Amino acid sequence: MTTTTNPNTLARDFAVHFLYQCEADKLFYFSAEYFEMFSSYFKVEGPQKSYLESITKGVLENLNKIDEKISAHSKNWKISRMPVTDRVVLRMATLEILEKMAPDKVILNEAIELAKRYGTEHSGSFVNGVLDAVLAEARS
């Protein structure tokens, strides 16, 4: 990514990596120490670090609520059976939708792009379908 990329876009990309690592390490709560080690290692600073912390802390502190929302709209897919990258992207975007952290269109577009970049060939459309339903419910 270039240096002209939006700080929140960069933060979302880092959040995929951080939350993926949390899954791998079975860390299902926010650890400030773990976050600082990650941020330091990847040299995440300034606006990116602030938004990254908001996303990751929000996801990990509201994991059950977020997973319930995703489960309600992911037909025939249990959270535990989803590819980790899809699950992480869905959790991030669901938090952003519920907390109105960014415009809906931005949240959806960036989530779909992250799913395509890090997931399977079907991840983009899967994430799009689930998030459309989450968004429709949240905005009704």
Which terms would index this structure?
140 residues, mainly alpha, N-utilizing Substance Protein B Homolog, Chain A, 7 helices, 73% helix
Strand content: under 5%
User: Can you tell me the CATH superfamily?
Assistant: NusB-like
What structural category do the secondary elements indicate? mainly alpha
Q: What is the CATH topology?
A: N-utilizing Substance Protein B Homolog, Chain A
List SSEs in N-to-C order. Answer: HHHHHHH
The total beta strand count reads 0
Describe this protein's structure.
With 140 residues, this protein is mainly alpha-helical. Helix content is 73%, strand content 0%. The model has no long low-confidence stretch (mean pLDDT 94). It has a single domain (7-139), classed as NusB-like (N-utilizing Substance Protein B Homolog, Chain A, Orthogonal Bundle), CATH 1.10.940.10.
Summarize the helices and strands and which ones pair or pack.
Layout: H1 7-24, H2 32-41, H3 46-61, H4 63-73, H5 84-98, H6 104-118, H7 123-139
Helix pairs in contact: 1-3, 1-5, 3-5, 4-5, 4-7, 5-6, 5-7, 6-7
In short:
This protein is mainly α and 140 residues long. The protein is built from 7 helices and no strands. The longest helix is centred in the N-terminal third of the chain and has 18 residues, at 7-24.
